[in-house]
UniProtKB/TrEMBL annotation:
Residues 374-388 have a biased composition (Basic and acidic residues). Residues 267-284 have a biased composition (Low complexity). It comes from Streptococcus panodentis. Keywords: Coiled coil, Membrane, Transmembrane, Transmembrane helix. The lineage of its organism: Bacteria, Bacillati, Bacillota, Bacilli, Lactobacillales. This is Efflux transporter periplasmic adaptor subunit.
Length: 388
């Protein structure tokens, strides 16, 4: 037997140890990966549910009165006579707020009244006294004279009645013109603005005399983008928040969405390629109104508020992780009696957690929430875990 040198012996021992350690390390890695792969490949199954996708539509608007009245100075009515209210006054529907004075309107009314009175006097005199007939003593001749006089009296009476009717019409019109000199409140409300210092401006500038806001519920008014116009509808519920009171919320409902851009504006298209146009793309804005349905509380007119629109649409929801895209189609793996099935679906809206399925599934479908590339249509799945 040949005796090994010391350095040769150490080399053999080192090599053996390296082999053993390497083998153990390899087994450890394989064992760990096998467990991890098995855990990852274990299907999790969850039943589809019916519900709504959380809306991500956010709007801004301003709190306004649901009914308000502006009274502007109108020089065509005459000279301003008096503003009968002050800021802060509570007014009732029909209460006089502003009066004008017009000599022409008063004169027209007085003349119409005199015409009516004159027609009344003449008609009364004719009906009371009739007409005078000179008799001759000849019965036949006198009879003819009386008949002719009666016809004349009837004709005069008819003319007087027509004249009186015309005079009454003129009097009513003149009275309406006088009534128009007094401007009244259209609803119960609060006076929030009064301006007595106005002039007969020739520039067409609108001058507010009185501004009244109703005491009813408030509204929120704002503008929608053309994208939001296509995704919102009247009747949807909203949650309202204000920076002034960040810890408070109000509820409301969309009551109006205009189908026409604000002030008739139109979007300006960008110039076509190669053209010399300088147009720029812009988005049209569409007015909307939200009725506030909760208690007003600290909310005040004029506040700027944020609105989150709630989605009222109910649909079939599955976890977003269960949807598999394949080209331009989308699929969900379902589990029916232990058999995996690949089902083509049509997608709706989605949020961070859920995907709405427009077609392809029912609320009773069980879907695999963690499908893998190794799944095959018709494959038997013996071991899976139900997820809540």
């Amino acid at each position: 037997m040949r005796k090994l040198k010391k350095w040769q012996l150490f080399s053999i021992i080192g090599a053996s140890l390296a082999v053993v350690v390497g083998a153990l390390f390899f087994m450890f890695l394989n064992g760990g990966n096998s467990s991890e792969t098995a855990a990852e490949s274990k299907p999790y199954v969850q039943q589809a549910k019916e519900g709504s996708i959380a809306s991500s539509v956010l709007l801004t608007g301003n709190v306004t009165a649901n009914n308000e009245q502006y009274i502007y100075y109108d020089s065509t009515k005459g000279d301003l006579d008096s503003v009968l209210v002050n800021v802060g006054d509570q007014v009732a529907a029909g209460q006089a707020l502003v009066t004008y004075k017009s000599a022409e309107a008063q004169a027209a009314y007085d003349a119409a009244v005199r015409a009516v009175n004159k027609a009344d006097r003449q008609l009364h005199d004719l009906e009371t006294n009739g007409v005078t007939v000179n008799t001759t003593g000849d019965e036949e001749t006198d009879g003819q004279s009386v008949a002719q006089a009666q016809r004349s009296a009837d004709s005069q009476a008819a003319d007087l009645r027509d004249a009186r009717a015309d005079a009454v019409d003129n009097m009513n019109k003149a009275q309406a013109a006088l009534n128009a000199l007094t401007v009244t409140s259209t609803a119960d409300g609060t006076v929030v603005e009064v301006n007595r210092d106005v002039s007969k401006s020739t520039t067409g500038t609108t001058q507010t005399l009185v501004h009244v806001v109703s005491n009813g519920n408030l509204q929120v008014k704002g503008e929608l983008s053309e994208y939001n116009l296509a995704n919102l509808s009247v009747g949807q519920e909203v949650t309202i928040t204000s920076k002034v009171y960040p810890d408070k919320k109000w509820t409301g409902k969309i009551s109006y969405i205009s189908n026409y851009p604000k002030d008739g504006q139109q979007a300006t298209a960008a110039p076509a390629a190669g053209s010399s146009g300088t147009g720029t793309a812009s988005s049209s804005k569409y007015p909307y109104t939200v009725d506030i349905t909760s208690e007003i509380g600290e909310l005040k007119q004029g506040f700027s508020v944020n609105l989150e629109v709630k989605n009222n649409t109910q649909g079939i929801l599955v976890p977003a992780s269960s949807v598999v895209a394949d080209g331009d189609k989308n699929y969900v793996w379902t589990l029916e009696k232990g058999i995996a099935k690949k089902v083509e679906v049509t997608l709706g809206n989605a949020d961070a957690e859920n995907q709405e399925i427009s077609s392809g599934l029912t609320k009773d479908s069980k879907v695999i929430t963690n499908p893998t590339d190794s799944l095959k249509d018709g494959q038997e799945v013996k071991s899976y875990e139900e997820a809540n």
